């Protein structure tokens, strides 16, 4: 299957990830994370906001249907 860049990926490229990771480390945000690290949570919440999702279940369902593409987003 060929790889296609998405608009969502282009939006994520605008994020200053080094600064984000610095803040995560500074505030020890990933200290006791079991399954969903801060970056993945941010990506999910951003997707939910931009897609107009009405709840977490809708976000999870939508992201699950794009599981193979999440790898390319870093989530």
Report on the structure:
The protein is mostly helical and 75 residues long. The protein has one domain (7-73). 64% of the residues lie in helices and 0% in strands. It contains 5 helices and no strands. It has helices spanning 7-13, 17-26, 38-51, 56-65, 67-73. Helix 3 (38-51) crosses helix 4 (56-65). The chain is globular, with a radius of gyration of 13 Å. 4% of the residues are buried. The model has no long low-confidence stretch (mean pLDDT 87).
Could you give the topology of this structure?
Elements: H1 7-13, H2 17-26, H3 38-51, H4 56-65, H5 67-73
H-E string: HHHHH
Q: How would a crystallographer describe the biggest sheet? A: none
Uncertain residue ranges? none
Distance between the termini: 20 Å
The number of helical runs is: 5
Structural class: mainly alpha
Mind telling me the C-alpha Rg?
13 Å
How many separate domains make up the residues?
A: 1
Helical content stands at 55-70%
Task: State the total count of DSSP E strands.
Answer: 0
In round numbers, the mean pLDDT is: 87
Oligomer: single chain
Shape: globular
Content of β-strand:
under 5%
